[in-house]
Each structure stands twice: as C-alpha cells, then as structure tokens.
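Supplementary Text 2. Reproducibility record for the structural model of the 263-residue chain.

All settings were left at their defaults, and a single model was retained for analysis rather than an ensemble. We include the record here because the model underlies the residue-level annotations in Supplementary Table 4.
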Amino acid sequence: MTTPADPAPRTSNIHVGRGEPLVEITDVQKHYGEFQALKDIDLTVNRGEVVVVIGPSGSGKSTLCRTINRLETITSGTITIDGAELPKEGKALASLRADVGMVFQSFNLFAHLSILDNVTLGPIKVKGMKKSDAVALARQLLDRVGIAQQADKLPAQLSGGQQQRVAIARALAMQPKVMLFDEPTSALDPEMINEVLDVMVGLAQDGMTMIVVTHEMGFARKAADRVVFMADGQIVEEATPEEFFTNPKSARAKDFLSKLLTH
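Retained model, structure tokens:
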C-alpha cells in the first residue's frame, strides 16, 4: 500500500445531499451457507457522488461492490439503479450491467485483441453501436486515460498500470451511469498506482458517480465525497473524508486507522 503525501481534500465537486439518488441499497443481506457476508446494508449514492468504501480485509467491501451489478446475488433486500430494481437474469440484467461499469483488481482484457478492439467490443456487441462511432469513442477515451498511442498494441505489450487504464476506458465506453471500482490498484506495482488513481480523480472531478473499494487513503481524502467504513459485513460508519480521518466515531474505525498510521 502506498502512503502518498496528504493531498488537498476534494472541494470543487461536492455532491453530498445534491441530486437524486442513483444507487439505493436497502436492508441487503448476503449469506454463503451459514456465513453472513453482508448484514443490514443500507446505502444511498446520489448522482455525481463519489463514495469510497474502506475497511479491513474480509469486511464485505468487495462483496457489496459486486452485488450492485449482480455479479453476486443477495439473499434478501433490494438494490435499485436509477429507480429500477436489479433484475435477476436475462436481457434486463445485461441492459443494467451496461449502465454499471466495473473495474476489477485484474484487468480481464482479451489477450488476443488490440487495445482498441478491447474498448470497442462492448459498444458494438452490446449496444449495437456502428463500428466507426465505437472506434471514435474508444480513441477519445484512450486519450482521456493517457494511452491513445497504445491503441494498436496487445495487452501483453502494456504495463499493468496501462492495462488498468484500458480497463477503465473499456468500462467508460459503455457510457455507464455509475462506475464501480473493486481494489483497482491492488495488483499494481507501487510506481504504477498513481497513474491509475490520477485517472480516477479526473473522473471524480468530471462528475462521474463512483463507488470505489480501495486501500488508497490518499485517494479517499482527495476524491471522495463520503467515506463508508465496513467491518464484519456491516457499515459501521459513514462520514466526509475530513470527518472520518480526523475524528472517527467508532472504535473499529479508530483501530483501523491507527494500524494504517503505524505502518
């Protein structure tokens, strides 16, 4: 985990309490057999808001993230995206996933396709976009994430940080309403982490709705509107970054932060 110098907190694009709810999670429970991974989860993310989810390993952060586009099913409760409840399967679920971009720890790029083809595949196959339009959009997005010159290469020819930026561009190409990031920098070498975080900060500043599971506290301070702290499958605490990092309310959060500060 990197420990960058504390950046200035995000102040130019605050969305807490503004705009309508985009993601609503109500009384969600998730069991794996006898084990309960998510307990009594209630969380609303407003349009344009950046929510960073942090907590110790095994706290349910990634499980929560993956339930929002139904990569993980829930045992009970409801999740709605832009007013529509998550469908269980079929075309409706595929349509919803087009509205919910996701970037994983691993890049999951198609090794045999060029970078450009990786980014255009979804818009052409899923959204029925004309190839010329998809190519134009892909080139624009690759430029946005700083790798336009890599468009004709194969994934194996790129660094890990570059591949993760391709994965972000690929998710953005579907023109999603919300972006989910599940530990997007955890598989990267330390020198590559900031190049990915810089892209994510830019998205936040542009007003993209984002839910980010991460251990990068510098990003949480800089880009988040709200920090959600999880432990033992529950949301223990929610606050602005300033409030959370300077005055955590719960003993679990205080213990978590104290361990970060001593390493």
